[in-house]
Amino acid sequence: MFSAQDVYPDISLDHIFSQVSEYDIFRKYVKNFKEIDVPFLSEFYDDKSADCYIYQNSSNKLNYKDFANVEHQFTCIYYIMFKYNCNYKEALLIICNDFNLFDVKQDLKPTMFLGKDVNNPIIQHKIKSTITIQVRNWDIVDYNYWSKYTIDFGLLDSYDIFPCSNVYLHKGERTIVFNSTKANPIYAYRFTNDGKYSYKIYKPLSPDKRYKWLFSGGVKENIEGFDQLPLHGDILILNKSLKDVICTKLCGYSSVSLQGEANTLEQSLVDKLLKRFNQIIILYDNDEQGIKSAKSIANKYGFKSIIIPLEYDCKDLSELIAKIGLKDAKIVLNKLIDEKN
């Protein structure tokens, strides 16, 4: 291709970000991306379902994630590296050149790694990933993790959460094996869709954040905590994770969660829930992303929204329980709800 190390060896990411934002980079190089948190089609295969997102992570950085392909999770730089099959230095050179950050513009015309012009990539069919798990018994490592949130094994079982010894991620003919260890335990959230199981894999202590969550087919349509809801009730809390759904139940309220704060709350689901509950209150994280997503849903459906007060230095209910205990966390939650009613 070319060697960025031979040309402009002083290129740095800090220099680029001082003049160009992550958003600008994603907009230029991600073909179908328009807005943050709005799903779009992948440009890397013949995509029929909009499963890709650009979202803001807990460190306020933008990331690309394809929920249909666990291997496609990138920062803006690594997206360019993957798209053009280039190294890190070459990706920086492409950005500097395309955004005119050099005194002299180079004649660079990188092509997609699939071998075609950027605007006409070779079309490949999406290969859905599947997951199989090997279940193990609960142990002291699991107790130490979940008991922080006052969640016991019986409650985890009732929400179809299992400890795993091994998880197998199948992608075509390729299989990646993840092994549970004491330092990095693995849990599976199981869902049933059309008589088939699908899994969402949770590795809460994973040092590699790319593999903290693993997904298999159909999970976007599965609503966490839905199967455990009572037939009718007064208040339903919309959370952002199954762990917070369980913590909300411990505080005395029914709760469900989408597969993430970036996911869209569909009108069909709202209609189902409002036939069973008198009102829906949103409880998302108190960070920028959580507040933004909660505001979007609240404006669309007229729901009330609450957050954990910043004075507790906790982003969500589970963290609050771990910090001040279930009894006091319940008092905080009750007060937040009472203030809205």
Given helix and strand content, the structural type is: alpha+beta
Number of domains: 3
Distance between the termini: 63 Å
Spans of at least 5 consecutive residues with low confidence:
1-9, 114-125
In N-to-C order, the SSE pattern is HHEEEHHEHHEEEEEEHEHEHEHH
SS element count, helices: 11
- Largest sheet descriptor: 6 strands, antiparallel
In brief, what are we looking at here?
29% of the residues lie in helices and 22% in strands.
Textual characterization of the structure:
- The protein contains eleven helices and 13 strands.
- By secondary structure, the chain is α+β, with helices and mostly antiparallel strands.
- The model is unreliable at 1-9 and 114-125 (pLDDT under 50).
- The protein folds into three domains: 1-126; 130-221, no CATH class; 226-340, Dna Topoisomerase Vi A Subunit, Chain: A, domain 2 (3-Layer(aba) Sandwich), CATH 3.40.1360.
- Strand 12 (277-283), helix 9 (288-301) and strand 13 (304-306) form a beta-alpha-beta unit.
Topology, please?
Elements: H1 13-17, H2 22-29, E1 52-56, E2 62-66, E3 73-74, H3 76-84, H4 88-98, E4 130-135, H5 140-146, H6 153-158, E5 161-171, E6 174-179, E7 186-193, E8 196-202, E9 213-215, E10 233-239, H7 242-250, E11 254-257, H8 267-274, E12 277-283, H9 288-301, E13 304-306, H10 317-324, H11 326-340
Parallel strand pairs: 10-11, 10-12, 12-13
Antiparallel strand pairs: 1-2, 2-3, 4-5, 5-6, 5-7, 7-8, 8-9
